[in-house]
Input
Amino acid sequence: MENLDRNTCPEAKQYPNRVVQFGGGNFLRGFADWMIQCMNDRMDFNAGVSIIQSSASRASDQLNRQQGLYHLVTSTVENNLPVQNIERIDCINGCINPQADMGAFLHLAEDAGVQLVISNTTEAGIVLDTGDFSRPGSPASFPARLALFLHHRYRHFAGAGDRGLAIICCEMIEDAAGQLFNMVCRFSREWQYEPEFIAWLEQNNAFCSSLVDRIVPGFPKANAEAIQNRIGFADQMLVEANDYYLWVIEAPEWVRTLFPAPQAGLNLIYTDRLAPFRERKVKVLNGAHTATVALSMLAGLATVQQSVEHPLVGPFLKKIIYDEICPTIDLPENELRAYADSILERFASPAIRHEWPSIALNSLSKWSVRIVPTLLDYRQEFGRLPQLVVFSLAALAVMYRGNYRGAAIVLNDNPQQLQLMSEAWSGFDGSDSDISNEAASRVAEAIVGIVLPEATGATVTTELVPACAQQIKAILDEGVEEALSAVMG
Output
């Protein structure tokens, strides 16, 4: 079987660069890049995508070896049987690693055809890395690299107003675009860029927050061989996605004209007010995932579907959505319940194998963004902590020990936060039972300090630490399922 690339698949089209994409993971390839492909196919959008890597990546190297080509496998269920639709994606022109080739990165900024930037660097990506203040020519963080990219473009085109870009943020952060704009301005001041550049940024570019909704499990390991036999190529960059998708973008009129996805029949909504869409999706869909990931992994469950079907974790998932998350959202109850029902149907779908280890990436920052708002809103509304949310945090703390009942757990998160959790667990003797109250409290203090915003009131912290410590001790002393059973009542 031949490897997939543009030599073995000469019918694949090549498009001029129009989109610069920060992040080349499974999600954007199964979501935004697929949409761009649909626009190319349906309305001659004629857009190629250049991916900017955050660091050296085997996946990006493989995508370059395949010269940007891969297949998207869209899964659904018909007559209770999984059905797959396979599409070749050829809109990606390649991946650039600024660490290895800053020249290629900046050369892309000089391309007059580039009009759009899309980013998905996860919740951990839009952060102010002050270390980049001293690295103006080779920054490492996404906001700093974007500042460098935009300034180079500004200089190259002599500040031309028609060379500004639309920047669409897919990160699940409240006001992601506003935060990103402020960070770009901060780096511009630190690096002593001319004031006219900041004026150009504000007047001729659009920083747009968005809400993204699609379940994209990634590489379909279980049936990759059958899919490759069907397409006739060895494609190591296959990506699987659920058939449902939604993209909501808060953007000015000129961006809507620039990226006319609705005209291609795509489920993309432009709005002047993203907040209601965001709160519902982040709290229910993303929040349910993040609240359940640690519990599921400690229970030895591999996929979301297995968790839905589990006799304890399944009811936990439903109860935390209906009893603790939905009551904190200011939308009609019937509308919320219908949305929650649809989410649980998607979680239970046999057409998708969504694995918990892939969901677990950056769980600490995800918990802070996706679950803490529910925690605080529930506490304010009902005068008490939501007990299942507390249990979720305790399970997360135990997961961040890095092993449970003799099984190692691979953690992929912010190195400084991983170090804090490692230090917190260092006072524990390493057994899986009989953790002291003091040791459990140290771990609880560490994880609460990581996930709660600094501005959180002392009352919440004072209540949350002992409640979390109690559940950490229960999970280790009794086992995660026994502890969960007690909490569920």
About this structure: The mean pLDDT is 94.
